[in-house]
Amino acid sequence: MALSIWMILTVIFSLFYYGLMLSYWWNWSRYPKTTIEKSDFKTKVTVIIPARNEAHNILNILNDLKAQTYDSILFETLVVDDSSTDDTVELVEKYNFKNTRLIHLNTFFDENGEPLTLKKKAIETAVSLAEGELIMVTDADCRLPKNWIELFVMVYQKEQSALIAGPVIFNPAETVFEKFQALDFLGMMAITVAYFRKNVFNMCNGSNLAYQKSAFLAVGGYKGIDHIASGDDMLLIYKIAAQFLGKISYLKNEAAIVKTAPERKMSDFLQQRFRWTSKSGAYQNKTITRDLGLVYLFNWIILINVFLFAFGFRSILVVFIPQLAFKVMVDFLLLFSATRFFKKRELMEVFIPSQFLHLIYIIIVGTLGNLIPYKWKGRRIKK
């Protein structure tokens, strides 16, 4: 009797999962590709790069900005150093590009007289000093296409968007583990776009993000969410979308891709995902929390069914085999579509092993992500 009830639950949760994934695929596929048009560029832009111990990356992204096709008179770059202990500061100070400024975050203080730290404070401080009308934010370990600023300004001037999100991919990815991360992340990009089409604004990536300075100030920046170490992107977009209805855009074009490297070690990968998961409980719109919870429970059901079969409950195969088969099909549909759009079809080589890795990491991260502290940039962050 108990096994029969469990099999019914397996079917119910599986149907919900398949419906969710098909919804993702449909909405991602139907979101229109952003058309690149010639524009009379006139918007003043401020690019903000929070940085902590990024000596091995900082010159790459500064060179990418120096090579931008956007008129250098119309944009500035603010590098916000968060108490780096390597050569980050020295490299920025010596960099020869007239519109690059270095901000030392530890020279600014909170209401208790303590020096400011962490990414949200770095961005807030830079926004307060920014001369640009449009704020563009990325990370110091990213690589930018040469027309990155132009593309965002094109969308901004055409749609007068309060916030514009863009795609990020992991590249280069060479090992199976790195390719798994890259494939999984492409899936996240597709899901983000799917939510945009459904007017659910809880997902975006802070490595490729732009917003009006006036919109950021109008919602009070990170006030109300500044106690959460992460969430400089996902929690901010919700605040801006709530106040600026119909003014949120996604730049769906492969020319706007920002690239960053996958984690090389499993421990670093888990710390990254713990950081991402830590903000899930702060979503005011619970749609994504509900969907993440559904995916989490669905993966637990798969694992439990594996153990039931291993311990001799052969009848579980009646629901277990279809459960796995349909999961593979709907996951493939979404990921194949995403890899084709982003011209990363080679990542599908690891689709099958990724199915197993994804199952394990969803369970581990989903269980521990909101319970244990994580490390970020050499700091231990408490919940």
Describe this structure in words.
There is one protein chain. With 383 residues, this protein is of the alpha/beta class. The mean pLDDT is 91. The two termini are 41 Å apart. It is built from twelve helices and twelve strands. The protein is globular.
Brief rundown of the structure:
With 383 residues, the chain is an alpha/beta fold. It contains 12 helices and 12 strands. The protein starts with a helix and ends with a strand.
Shape: globular
Q: What structural class do you assign from the helix and strand content?
A: alpha/beta
Tell me the fraction of residues in β-strands, as a range: 5-15%
* SSE string: HEHEHEHEEHEEHEHHEEHHHHEE
Radius of gyration: 22 Å
Low-confidence stretches: none
In what order do the strands lie side by side in the largest sheet?
3-2-1-4-8-6-9
Average pLDDT taken over every residue: 91
Ordered list of secondary-structure elements with their pairings:
Blueprint: H1 2-30, E1 45-51, H2 58-66, E2 75-81, H3 88-94, E3 100-104, H4 119-129, E4 134-137, E5 142-143, H5 148-159, E6 163-165, E7 168-170, H6 176-197, E8 209-212, H7 213-218, H8 234-243, E9 248-250, E10 258-260, H9 266-277, H10 287-310, H11 317-341, H12 351-368, E11 374-376, E12 379-381
Parallel strand pairs: 1-2, 1-4, 2-3, 6-9, 7-10
Antiparallel strand pairs: 4-8, 5-10, 6-8, 11-12
